[in-house]
Amino acid sequence: MNIRPLLDTLGIQEDAARALADDLRTQITELQARLREAETHLEHLAITRKTVTALSGRLPAHPDSPDLPEHPDYPRILAVLNEATGPLRARDVCEALDHELLPKNIEGTRAKLKRLVKLDILNEVDAGSFTRNQ
């Protein structure tokens, strides 16, 4: 009986299994490195939270901070306009908020900007161009 073909087949399967094991070891090493990075980032965030919490009692109150409408975009819109070097259009703000540039999103952002103008938080310097009140 000739067992050579059987041994050759076993050799091919061993090589494939060895290659798979090597690939999995490489993936494990990469995942362990990523896990270490994530754990370090979590530690840094915990330290930051502790520091911010400790300092929060020392920060001055902002009685003149505007009462914003109940929507998560409003503080983000103000942050975008605070960092802007000039007037922004609704499309620019929408893009900065990572909203898809669809007409409904741009118009929704424009409506929010107009509402902030009515609340005297923003200025509309030109038709459709908005800045933060100084």
How would you describe the overall organization of this protein?
The chain is mainly α. It has helices at residues 4-56, 73-83, 90-96, 103-118, and strands at residues 88-89, 122-126, 129-132. The chain has a three-stranded antiparallel β-sheet with strand order 1-3-2. α3 packs across α4. The N and C termini lie far apart (94 Å).
Key features of this structure:
single chain, 134 residues, mainly alpha, three-stranded antiparallel sheet, 4 helices, 3 strands, 8% strand
What secondary-structure arrangement, pairings included, does this model have?
Blueprint: H1 4-56, H2 73-83, E1 88-89, H3 90-96, H4 103-118, E2 122-126, E3 129-132
Antiparallel strand pairs: 1-3, 2-3
Helix pairs in contact: 3-4
Ends distance: 94 Å
- Overall mean pLDDT: 90
**Quaternary:** single chain
Number of strands: 3
SSE series = HHEHHEE
Cα shape? elongated
Poorly predicted ranges (pLDDT <50, ≥5 residues)? none
Give me the Rg, rounded. 29 Å
Question: TL;DR?
Answer:
With 134 residues, the protein is mainly α.
